[in-house]
Every structure is written in C-alpha cells, then in structure tokens.
C-alpha cells in the first residue's frame, strides 16, 4: 500500500510515483498496470496503490533438498489517481479500478541463487493495461557481508541463510529478466 501527496498541493514528480507490474503484480508487464497516456502508451505512474496476494503451496512430490517449490496465487489491487496532464482531451486513462490475476509460480533454490518462473493471467483488468503471461526472475544473493552471515556461516563463507529465508535481513539484489 502506498500514497504520495505533495503537502503544498503541487504535482508529484514522475520519478516519485508508483509503477507496478512485473514481479510486484504478476500477470502484468513491468509498469503495465495503472495510469497511462493512450496516444503514446507510456505509463504515467500512480499516486495511490494497494496490492495484495494470496497463495497456497502445491506439493511437487520431490525431496525438499532439491529446493523447488510451487505456489498457486491470486494477486489483486488498485492503482491510480495520477496528477499528470496532457494537451489532448481524453488522452490519459486513470481509473482507480480493481485488478486481479491468477497463476502458478515455480521457484528453485539453485546453486547460483534463487530462480523463479511465474505464469499468470488477468482475471480483471482495464483495456489499457499491458499483460505478461510469463516472467523469469533470477536473484543474486549477497553472502557473508552482514552480521547475521558472520554469525551463522561458521567460517566457511557460504551463508545460505539468505536463500533459506532464515536470516531476517535477506539482503538481495534482483535482476528481473523478461522473456
């Protein structure tokens, strides 16, 4: 959930707005959901959003040591209320409308870092939203540089606590790759 508001009543800068989609709202392209300028197709960013998810783990029938998981999910939310203006009447579409997607997410705790495959379809969308059925995420996990790593890695320099989600800090750099 997020709200950005200029306390002096001015226009919110483009870079300060919320752009959602991709891994933050599966089933939509990166910046694919929310206010859009119709003539150019550009995402304008929103001043308000609320996004939630619900998911359930699915059994894969393989040993846990392999590090693979599958989840069925539903993502839902609203995004909108931009203060962008256009010279053309009706050129900006900005409904603070409900959107929802459903899908399957498969993740693998690989030797080179976490890998995730998302397959998603929209249940409810606006006609100007940009959808994406498949998304691949590869995350690089930094290890050994944090207090928790030094506490738990037992001197071998291979702290897996970030990947295993045991460590609370979970310092991570993500690369979101589109296919």
Strand content: 35-45%
What spatial form do the alpha-carbon principal axes imply?
elongated
Helix content: under 10%
The total strand number stands at: 9
The biggest sheet amounts to: 7 strands, antiparallel
Structural class: mainly beta
The Rg value, from CA coordinates, equals 19 Å
Q: N-to-C SSE series?
A: EEEEEEEEHHE
Low-confidence stretches: 144-179
How many angstroms separate the termini? 28 Å
Number of continuous helical runs:
2
Average pLDDT score: 82
The order of strands across the largest sheet is: 1-3-4-6-7-8-9
Strand and helix map with partners:
Layout: E1 2-3, E2 36-37, E3 48-58, E4 68-80, E5 92-93, E6 98-110, E7 113-124, E8 134-141, H1 147-152, H2 161-164, E9 172-177
Antiparallel strand pairs: 1-3, 2-5, 3-4, 4-6, 6-7, 7-8, 8-9
Describe this structure in a few short sentences.
With 179 residues, the protein is mostly beta strands. The protein is 6% helix and 39% strand.
Tell me what the structure shows.
A hairpin with a 2-residue loop joins strand 6 and strand 7 (113-124). The chain is mainly beta and 179 residues long. The strands form two sheets. A seven-stranded antiparallel β-sheet has the order 1-3-4-6-7-8-9. Strands 2-5 form a two-stranded antiparallel ribbon. It has two helices and nine strands; from the N terminus they run ββββββββααβ. Residues 144-179 have low confidence and may be disordered. The two termini are 28 Å apart.
């Amino acid at each position: 959930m997020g709200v950005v508001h200029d306390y002096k009543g001015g226009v919110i800068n483009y870079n300060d707005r919320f752009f959602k989609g991709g891994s933050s709202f599966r089933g939509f392209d990166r910046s694919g959901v929310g206010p859009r300028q119709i003539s150019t197709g550009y995402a304008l960013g929103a001043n308000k959003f609320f996004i939630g998810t619900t998911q359930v783990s699915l059994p894969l029938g393989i040993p846990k040591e392999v590090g693979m998981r599958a989840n069925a999910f539903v993502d839902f939310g609203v995004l909108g209320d931009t203060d962008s203006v256009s010279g053309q009447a009706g050129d900006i579409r900005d409904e603070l409308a409900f959107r929802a997607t459903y899908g399957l997410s498969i993740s693998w705790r690989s030797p080179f870092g976490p890998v995730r495959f998302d397959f998603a379809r929209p249940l409810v969308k606006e006609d100007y939203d940009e959808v994406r059925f498949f998304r691949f995420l590869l995350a690089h996990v930094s290890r050994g540089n944090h207090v928790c790593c030094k506490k738990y890695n037992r001197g071998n320099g291979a702290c897996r606590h970030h990947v295993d989600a045991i460590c609370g800090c979970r310092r991570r750099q993500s690369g979101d790759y589109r296919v």
